[in-house]
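Standup notes
- DV: blocked on the single-chain target, sequence here:
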Amino acid sequence: MQLFILILSVFSFATPAVAQNWREYSYPDYSFRVTFPADPQIETTKYQITDDRAVEAHVYSVRRDNAEFKVTVAELADPGLEETAVIDHAIKTLSEGGEVKINIPHRINRVFGRQLSILQRDGSRAAVALFDYSGRLYRIEGTSHPTGDDATADAIRFVQSLIFTGGGSNRSADDIRAARGACSAAGSGGAGSGVAASGAPPDSARLELRCRRQQTFAALVSALNSGDLPGAQRAYAALSDSQGRFANPNGPFAQAVSQIGQALRSGDLSGAQQALSSLPRGRGAIRER
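- DV (later): unblocked, structure below
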C-alpha cells in the first residue's frame, strides 16, 4: 500500500468548541475504542457486504440535528473474501448519490485501511474510515448535515478517535516495518527541515500520532489539489490540535503553513493552493514536544 509521507506542521487557529460530554467508549469483544459525544445507541442489523450477500453487523450510533456519528462492525465470516473487494464495495455503497472527494490510505497502529471524504447530494459531508480486520469490516462515519451549526470538525474528530485494541494487524511484519520506518524518517528533522528535533526517538504513541497527522495532512493536500474548498477546510480544522514547534517560526515553511490557514478561513481556495505550492516539499516533518 502506498504511504503518504508528507511535510506536516503546526496549525494555530481554533476549531469550534467541543461538547464537554465527549468520552471514550470501549468494546473489547470487538477490539476497538472510540469517542462519542453521548451514549451511543447499539443495534444488531444486516449489512450488505457484497451485492448478493448480507451479514450480521453491530451498529453504534449517536444522532444530532446537525450530525451523525456511527461505527458499523460487520462479521465477514468468510475468510475467502478479499480485502480489496470488501473495501471497494463499502466505498461504492457510501458514495451512492454522492461524490468521493478524498480516498487515501489510512492506518491505525498496525491496522491498514482507507480514509474518505464524501459529499452527499443533500450537502451533507462525511468523514469515513474503512478497515478489513480480524474477520470483520469496520466502517466509521462522521457526517455533518447542512443544518444547524457546522459539525465538520466534530465529524473528523470522531473518525480519528477510533483505536483498535488487542495488538493485532492485517498486514505482514515487513509491511509494518516499512510503514514505521517511513514515519520515523519523515519525523527525523535534521538540517534544513524547518522543524526542531528533540534528539530522542519517539515512543510508539508519538509515532502513531505523527503518522495519523501525516495521513490527515494528505487529505488536506488532496482536497486543495482537487479544488475541494470545504474538504480542505475540514481537513485543516482536524489538524488544528497538532502540537509541535518550528526550528525557525519565521522561516518560509512556517509562513506558508500560516498562509494556507488564513486563506482557508477566508474561503480563498486559490490563495490556499498558491500557499501550498510554496511549501518546501520533502524536507522534514513535525516533531512533537
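- Follow-up: Helices lie at 83-95, 152-160, 173-186, 204-225, 229-238, 252-265, 269-277.
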